[in-house]
Design a protein that fits this description.
Blueprint (H helix, E strand, L loop, with lengths): L2 H17 L6 E5 L6 E6 L2 H4 L6 H13 L8 E6 L3 H10 L3 E6 L24 E4 L3 H15 L1
Parallel strand pairs: 3-4, 4-5
Antiparallel strand pairs: 1-2, 1-3
């Protein structure tokens, strides 16, 4: 599968979040060697009453549980929105190999925006990063969600 196809799966996860009145962000963790999807998730912070229930964190937890490990060496993550600082750190600690994201988050992002976590001297693991995958549909879903909130 291509990066766009995996991002489409992440977008389907984000759509589920949208339908449940959660900020529509979806994440998918993939084994690039065989194309298997190891885990997928979407934001559940509002429904769980847990600020840490971001799509990336939930996908990492699922993948770690499934693989019975705390390190996700050689796995890739596709997420519809540039990760925040918390999620960027979790991706680093999990040792995700490549991070692909859709929409840039100039306000809350921490990869190519904001604090640029992976450029910090204290960052132990820096995944390869590729942003802008299906940026338009990822961005439009978020814009529609927040427009409906106003």
């Amino acid at each position: 599968m291509t990066a766009e196809e995996y991002m489409k799966i992440a977008l389907k996860c984000a759509q589920k979040a949208f339908e449940q009145d959660e900020v529509p962000v979806g994440a998918v963790i993939v084994n690039p060697l065989n194309g298997d999807i190891v885990a997928k998730a979407y934001n559940k912070s509002a429904h769980k009453g847990d600020a840490t229930s971001h799509a990336e964190i939930l996908a990492i937890k699922k993948a770690c549980a499934k693989l019975k490990t705390s390190r996700l060496w050689n796995l890739d993550m596709y997420v519809t929105l540039e990760p925040c600082t918390m999620c960027a750190a979790a991706i680093s600690f999990a040792r995700i190999n490549c991070l692909y994201f859709g929409a840039t988050d100039e306000k809350g992002g921490a990869v190519v925006s904001g604090v640029k976590f992976y450029e910090s001297d204290t960052c132990h693991h820096r995944p390869k990063v590729c942003g802008g995958i299906l940026q338009q549909p990822c961005s439009e879903l978020l814009k529609t969600f927040f427009k409906n909130k106003r």
